[in-house]
UniProtKB/TrEMBL annotation:
It holds the Pfam family Sua5_yciO_yrdC. Its EC number is 2.7.7.87. NCBIfam families: L-threonylcarbamoyladenylate synthase (TIGR00057). Residues 8-194 form the YrdC-like domain. InterPro entries: DHBP_synth_RibB-like_a/b_dom, Sua5-like_dom, Sua5/YwlC_C, Sua5_C, T(6)A37_SUA5, TC-AMP_synthase_SUA5. PANTHER family: SUA5, THREONYLCARBAMOYL-AMP SYNTHASE. The keyword NAD does not apply. This is Threonylcarbamoyl-AMP synthase. It is found in: Cytoplasm. Required for the formation of a threonylcarbamoyl group on adenosine at position 37 (t(6)A37) in tRNAs that read codons beginning with adenine.
Length: 318
């Protein structure tokens, strides 16, 4: 069992653990992160061990200010405009590492680029006080559903970590959007909490989905975010014994026979749906149904990130 403490009480013990090279689970605006000092190889190794994460999958480095960010990476003009528009917030930029960056190579899986983001509030304050950047993947076992509450972290990783800082349910609910700016294009390696439309409004450029050759995020495994149950997308009717993940005001035929049903957002509000996604999947999984049917969800705005996660949850498991 990990200690679960409210943010004010968690702050000092979290710093002590991070300074000692240990890991701490803490809330960000997107999902809970499993954080460690990104300059300390043993601490970072502990993240991979606790999550059971393959070492070829690099981690996001979290910073508290631009001075810290620019010691680590080199920013081009478009990336600086993205920073001005979205930091602190749910946007991660993949940038060239700067000479003398100090980030342990385990974090970047030996790449010459680094994924950087500036989180809001508590996580940012912890980094600011620590004076070191934090490597932090989502606080869940590799391949499983990301945690958006302290209890979800405890259920998954509680026997492997000492402290969970409890900030209540996270606001955004899906991970950060990952962008890589090149002279040719702005690639969206992962859809997330900042939408393609918001990015276009900020920089006047349309993102290109995916990475192009050699740019795809190395950890973008097809099967990810997976519950124990099978996941069936775009269901047009409910089948015997299924649980139902609903969206919007209208139900598919047979919905009343669902073993369990949760609605991501009755009114079809995308922000609400994103915030509910992982907790609803976990709750439906607990119903014991062999399959979770998912109603069709439109493919725009924040729903792009929701659909991306659901497709990975539904992908064949290796
Ligand atoms: O919202 C978030 O981004 C959360 C919170 C905790 O900040 N973090 C998160 O981390 O989602 P994680 O480890 O679950 O996802 C990091 C993704 C992986 O898919 C990885 O492949 C990609 O970032 N990534 C990391 N470094 C990269 C790099 N240098 N180039 C391309 N992709 C990279
Ligand atoms: Mg993750």
């Amino acid at each position: 069992m990990a200690r679960i403490l409210p943010l004010e009480e968690a702050f000092d013990p979290a710093l002590d653990l991070l300074e000692a090279g240990d890991v701490v689970a803490l809330p960000t605006e997107t999902v809970y992160g499993l954080a460690a000092d990104a300059t300390n190889g043993e601490a970072v190794a502990r993240i991979f061990e606790v999550k059971g994460r393959p070492r070829f999958n690099p981690l996001i480095v979290h910073v508290s200010d631009m001075a810290m960010a620019q010691k680590i990476a080199v920013f081009d003009d478009i990336s600086l405009r993205l920073v001005a528009g979205f930091w602190p917030g749910p946007l991660t930029l993949v940038l060239p590492l700067r000479e003398g960056h100090g980030i342990h190579p385990l974090v970047t899986a030996g790449l010459d680029t680094v994924a950087l983001r500036m989180p809001r509030e508590f996580a940012r304050e912890v980094i600011d006080e620590l004076r070191h950047p934090l490597a932090a993947p989502s606080a869940n076992s590799s391949g499983r559903i990301s945690a958006t509450t302290a209890q979800a972290v405890e259920d998954d990783l509680g026997d492997r970590i000492k402290l969970i800082a409890d900030g209540g349910p996270t606001h955004v609910g899906v991970e950060s959007t990952i962008l890589k700016v090149t002279p040719q294009a702005v690639y969206m390696l992962r859809p997330g909490g900042v939408t393609a439309g918001e990015i276009r409004n900020a920089i006047g450029v349309d993102v290109v989905r995916g990475g192009g050759k050699g740019i795809e995020a190395p950890g973008m495994l097809a099967s990810h975010y997976a519950p124990n149950a099978a996941v069936r997308l775009d269901a047009t009717e409910l089948r015997e014994g299924e649980a139902l993940l609903a969206y919007g005001p209208n139900r598919i035929p047979g919905a009343d026979k669902a073993v369990a049903m949760l609605n991501l957002s009755e009114k079809g509000h995308m922000r609400e749906a994103a915030a509910n996604l992982y907790a609803d999947l976990q709750a439906l999984d607990r119903s014991g149904a062999a399959t979770i049917a998912v109603e069709p969800i439109p493919e725009d705005g924040l729903c792009e990130a929701i659909n991306d996660r659901l497709r990975r949850a539904a992908a064949p498991r290796s």
